[in-house]
Amino acid sequence: MTPISIIAAVADNNAIGRNGQLLCRLPNDMKRFKELTTGHSVIMGHRTYESLPKGALPGRKNIVLTSQSDIHYVGCTVCNSLASALAANGDGGEVFIIGGAGVYGQALEAADKMYLTRIRHAFADADTFFPVIDFSRWEETEWQEFPTDDRHDYPYTFLTYIRRKE
Ligand SMILES: NC(=O)c1ccc[n+]([C@@H]2O[C@H](COP(=O)([O-])OP(=O)(O)OC[C@H]3O[C@@H](n4cnc5c(N)ncnc54)[C@H](OP(=O)(O)O)[C@@H]3O)[C@@H](O)[C@H]2O)c1
Questions:
Q1: Cis bond leading into 100, ω under 30°?
Q2: Residue 80 Cβ < 6 Å to ligand 1
Q3: CATH numbers and ranges of domains, the chain
Q4: Alpha-carbon distance 67 to 37, whole Å?
Q5: Which atom of ligand 1 is nearest to the CA of 22?
Q6: What is the DSSP secondary-structure string of the chain?
Q7: What pTM does this model have?
Q8: What's the 26 CA to ligand 1 centre distance in angstroms?
Q9: 73 CA from centroid of ligand 1 (Å)
Q10: Is the distance from the beta carbon of residue 131 to the nearest atom of ligand 1 less than 6 Å?
Q11: Which tens digits make up the pLDDT trace of 76-112?
Q12: How many A from CA of 145 to the centre of ligand 1?
């Protein structure tokens, strides 16, 4: 079975976005995201695709979900269901669910792994939120904490979880 991984940057109040954009710029999170996802398929909702500053992410198979028909996004495979998006990965190995909110929610039950960046701030003006996670069903396998610095306005923690066998 192809491993399904969720990857997200989630604030202390579970926020992930505001006005169609990310909450803040964390260059080290971007670096981790690129390192983990390059060479793999990434599945995203069409609003997340539209938030990407340069369109399709290079070095990855970009799979965009929308219910609209006859729509094309440059450099992307367009799918109308999560099942067809996962099938479009073929035998491409680990597939990454990269948001947004509804897509994370749909993929949660099927996901094997979560790569989270916890942003240590509560963004009061956020409008998009990560689903509530029952962490008792997940085992933490990585925990790395970072302070603010001249390129990062908020402390943040890299966390990795694998689903516990039931
Ligand atoms: N912090 C993070 O890690 C992170 C990651 C990703 C995104 N974000 C943020 O989240 C926000 C965007 O996320 P969002 O939740 O608003 O939107 P989204 O999930 O990116 O896109 C939602 C759209 O995806 C399509 N879709 C979703 N599931 C589908 C399915 N099963 N079948 C067919 N189409 C499906 C629908 O498009 P149609 O309406 O066309 O049918 C739906 O309206 C932005 O602010 C972005 O910056 C943050």
A1: yes
A2: yes
A3: 4-163 (3.40.430.10)
A4: 25
A5: 47
A6: ---EEEEEEEETTSEEEBTTB-SS--HHHHHHHHHHHTTSEEEEEHHHHHH-TTSSPTTSEEEEE-S-SS---TTEEEESSHHHHHHHTTT-SSEEE---HHHHHHHGGG-SEEEEEEESS--TT--EEPPP--GGGEEEEEEEEE--BTTBSS-EEEEEEEEPP-
A7: 0.98
A8: 21
A9: 15
A10: no
A11: 999 999 999 999 998 879 999 999 999 999 999 999 9
A12: 28
Ligand 1 pocket member 148 (CB < 6 A): no
Question: Amino acid letter at 81?
Answer: S
How far apart are the C-alpha atoms of 6 and 27, rounded to whole Å?
19
- Residue 101 CA, closest ligand 1 atom number: 15
In Å, how far are 10, 19, 68, 164 from 117, measured between CA atoms?
A: 6, 20, 31, 20
Q: For residue 66, which atom of ligand 1 is closest to its CA? A: 34
Of ligand 1's atoms, which has the minimum distance to the CA of residue 8?
3
Instruction: Say yes or no to pLDDT of 1 above 80.
Output: no
Q: 136 C-alpha vs ligand 1 centroid, how far in Å?
A: 26
